[in-house]
């Protein structure tokens, strides 16, 4: 077969199909393959008819259709399928050819795969692709990492299909070595989990405490999307509230309250635990999905365990203003925690992450795009050594502005028995972060009491450790393991 394709793609599911249509619309010829070969023919004769696509019925045929250096992109299920395809593709490659994983792979897998593929004489790119079906078709956010030598060969394709902001700046740039791209995408998805959860908590407060209809909520979310909360998720929430089922009733009221997930939020929480980062809001959002999945148990518990019945007698508009501030404050915390995780990962894995550049990549195309991502970029432009977003003047001022209303919302939720785990945990994080003193001294005393784990003293230099024989029965032997 004549080598005429600029890039090949394996996996014609929703993301893959729309992404290759995007590539073709930008002037590229794309070879496509799917394990179920019938999908290839259906695509070539359907949405791809009359366009610059080459349908391949085998991996060998796909690779043979590509210009050198060959660029083969996989958009398949994360996990073992990626490894299986790598091993199937490699025998058909030549030195310098490039394998690209565009799925939601776990970043340690991408670190391992980069090393493996490079050891065979090829190059590897693990790129996060965010934006869903519409983003893939019209311009996603892309976060590539892996073999740096591969970037010049995929840069034009990636940046041409990516979303654009600020008069044409692509929401795509090189992130870093091995698993950096997939790590940044994982954190993006964790923030997405958090954003969706806090919006859901606001929705429940509107519905159960304020007694608002879907149409009323549509008006509120629409208004909020023109103010501080201007973002993709607020925009689509307004659309969802307005959507009617065939009988004219709100579609939102017909949907079972049982959330699904693909694991990226859980991975984000696991990475935070490994790196010692207090990712509280995102962690609670993952647990909230787990709790929602226990639908049958919740139904049984609702009949057995009593609690306060939501009642509201105050100023409804004032509460909505407070709720907006609670959402805004929690959203600021979500991004601050996410960036804290990025910074700690960069130290651990020796990645040179461009934090302002990451904010720019998230400003268009992706699910968490929002107005204040530009303020994150400004924060790092002003201070590249910024240790934490909440220490930036803009973010410090905004969380202080949000606090009063945020506290009233959290108090109202707790007093009325409405679960708001992410809104409240974000506020507790803020209070902990701004506290010069926390009760960890008691915790250390307890650890020393039962395990001789030692402690530091405030009247002695840092780095000196002490043990007390609290009962008079213990000896002077102390634990050798101390984690500050």
UniProtKB/TrEMBL annotation:
Q: Which reaction does it catalyse?
A: 6-phospho-D-gluconate + NADP(+) = D-ribulose 5-phosphate + CO2 + NADPH
Q: InterPro entries from the xrefs?
A: 6-PGluconate_DH-like_C_sf, 6PGD_dom2, 6PGDH_C, 6PGDH_Gnd/GntZ, 6PGDH_NADP-bd, 6PGdom_BS, NAD(P)-bd_dom_sf, Pgluconate_DH
Q: Provide the E.C. number(s) assigned to this enzyme.
A: 1.1.1.44
Give the matching Pfam families.
6PGD, NAD_binding_2
Pathway connected to this protein: Carbohydrate degradation; pentose phosphate pathway; D-ribulose 5-phosphate from D-glucose 6-phosphate (oxidative stage): step 3/3
Which SUPFAM superfamilies does the record cross-reference, listed alphabetically? 6-phosphogluconate dehydrogenase C-terminal domain-like, NAD(P)-binding Rossmann-fold domains
Q: Per the UniProt entry, what are the Gene Ontology biological process annotations, in alphabetical order? A: D-gluconate metabolic process; pentose-phosphate shunt
The protein's GO terms of the molecular function aspect are: NADP binding; phosphogluconate dehydrogenase (decarboxylating) activity
Binding sites annotated in the UniProt record for substrate = 104, 130-132, 188-189, 193, 262, 289, 447, 453
Residue intervals of the 6-phosphogluconate dehydrogenase C-terminal domain: 181-471
Which residues of the sequence carry a binding annotation for NADP(+)? 11-16, 34-36, 76-78, 104
Entry annotation: catalytic residues: 185 (proton acceptor), 192 (proton donor)
Q: Which UniProt keywords apply?
A: Gluconate utilization, NADP, Oxidoreductase, Pentose shunt
SMART domains assigned = 6PGD
Q: How does it assemble?
A: Homodimer.
Read off the NCBIfam families from this record.
gnd, PRK09287.1
What PANTHER family does the record point to?
6-PHOSPHOGLUCONATE DEHYDROGENASE (PTHR11811)
User: What is this protein's function?
Assistant: Catalyzes the oxidative decarboxylation of 6-phosphogluconate to ribulose 5-phosphate and CO(2), with concomitant reduction of NADP to NADPH.
What family does the database annotate? Belongs to the 6-phosphogluconate dehydrogenase family.
This chain belongs to the protein called: 6-phosphogluconate dehydrogenase, decarboxylating
Q: Organism classification, top ranks?
A: Bacteria, Pseudomonadati, Bacteroidota, Cytophagia, Cytophagales
């Amino acid at each position: 077969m004549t080598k005429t394709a600029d890039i090949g793609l394996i996996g014609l599911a929703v993301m893959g199909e729309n992404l290759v249509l995007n590539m073709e619309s930008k002037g590229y010829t794309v070879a496509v393959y799917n394990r179920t070969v019938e999908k290839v023919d259906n695509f070539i004769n359907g949405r791809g008819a009359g366009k610059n696509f080459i349908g391949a019925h085998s991996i060998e045929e796909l690779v043979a259709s590509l210009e050198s250096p060959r660029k083969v992109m996989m958009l398949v299920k994360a996990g073992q399928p990626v490894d299986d395809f790598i091993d199937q593709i490699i025998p058909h490659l030549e030195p310098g050819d490039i394998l690209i994983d565009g799925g939601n792979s776990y970043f340690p897998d991408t670190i391992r795969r980069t090393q493996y593929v490079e050891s065979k004489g090829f190059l590897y790119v693990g790129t996060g692709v965010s934006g869903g079906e519409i983003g893939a078709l019209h311009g996603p956010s892309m976060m590539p990492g892996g073999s740096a030598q591969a970037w010049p060969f995929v840069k034009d394709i990636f940046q041409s299909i990516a979303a654009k902001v600020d008069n044409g700046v692509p929401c795509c740039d090189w992130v870093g070595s091995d698993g950096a791209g997939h790590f940044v995408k994982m954190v993006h998805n964790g923030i997405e989990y958090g954003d969706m959860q806090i919006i859901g908590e606001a929705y429940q407060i509107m519905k159960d405490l304020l007694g608002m209809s879907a149409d009323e909520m549509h008006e509120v979310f629409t208004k909020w999307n023109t103010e501080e909360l201007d973002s993709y998720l607020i925009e689509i929430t307004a659309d969802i509230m307005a959507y009617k089922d065939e009988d004219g009733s709100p579609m939102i009221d017909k949907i079972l309250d049982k959330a699904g997930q693909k694991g990226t939020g859980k991975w984000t929480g696991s990475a935070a635990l490994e790196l010692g980062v207090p990712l509280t809001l995102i962690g609670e959002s993952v647990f909230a999905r787990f709790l929602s999945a226990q639908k049958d148990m919740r139904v049984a518990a609702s009949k057995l365990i009593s609690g306060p019945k939501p009642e509201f007698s105050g100023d409804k508009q004032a509460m909505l203003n407070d709720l907006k501030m609670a959402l805004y404050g929690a959203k600021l915390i979500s991004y601050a925690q996410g960036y804290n995780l990025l910074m700690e990962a960069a130290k651990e894995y020796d990645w040179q992450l461009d934090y302002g550049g990451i904010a720019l990549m998230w400003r268009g195309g992706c699910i968490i795009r929002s107005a204040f991502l530009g303020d994150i970029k400004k924060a790092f432009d002003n201070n590249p050594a910024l240790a934490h977003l909440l220490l930036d003047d803009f973010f410090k001022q905004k969380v202080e502005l949000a606090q009063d209303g945020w506290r009233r919302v959290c108090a109202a939720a707790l007093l009325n028995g409405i679960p708001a785990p992410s809104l409240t945990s974000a506020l507790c994080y803020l209070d902990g972060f701004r506290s010069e003193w926390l009760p960890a001294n008691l915790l250390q005393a307890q650890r020393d009491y039962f395990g001789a784990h030692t402690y530091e003293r405030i009247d002695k230099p840092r780095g000196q450790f002490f043990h007390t024989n609290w009962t008079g029965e213990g000896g002077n032997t102390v634990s050798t393991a101390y984690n500050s």
